[in-house]
Structures are given as C-alpha cells and as structure tokens.
C-alpha cells in the first residue's frame, strides 16, 4: 500500500530532520560548555542549549 506524499511545507516539517537538528544543537551546546579554550564559546553555550531544547520541545509536538 502506497502512502501519499505530504504537499509543500508539510513535508519539510516532518519530525525527523528538525528533531535531529535540535539534538545536534543541544550536543553542540554541551560541547561548547565543556571546552576549556575559548571563552566566547562558553559564553554562548547556554543560549545554544536553550534554543536546541525549545526547538526539540516544539518539534516533538508536530504530527508524524
């Protein structure tokens, strides 16, 4: 049985790619938080973690 493709923007809002991107943002923020070299990366690490977490919460409510 074939499933119909979702038209237009709905196909891009599937949970897979955006949810993976949010997880990568969270991981990048944690790495930025734990690195001992650049103070600029440490400074923005909380913001990156926060954006990734909020994005994950929003995307996880999208229908599959």
Automatic annotation (TrEMBL):
Domain of life: Bacteria
Protein name per UniProt: Uncharacterized protein
Keywords on record: Membrane, Transmembrane, Transmembrane helix
Transmembrane segments: 44-62
Keyword match Transmembrane helix: yes
Lineage: Bacteria, Pseudomonadati, Pseudomonadota, Alphaproteobacteria, Rhodospirillales
Organism: Hypericibacter terrae
